[in-house]
Amino acid sequence: MNKSVKYSPEVRERAVRLVFEHQGEYESQWAAIGSIAGKIGCTPETLRK
Description:
Blueprint: H1 9-22, H2 29-40, H3 44-48
Helix pairs in contact: 1-2
């Protein structure tokens, strides 16, 4: 059974900002998303959306 986790607007905003600020350090935007998602405790697909 999947459990839906609600992230606060502040966490969501910070995660998206981190992707845009650091995507140049990765081969692709997806690579940046995967790395940052792991650090904040969500799946890459959740962060991508």
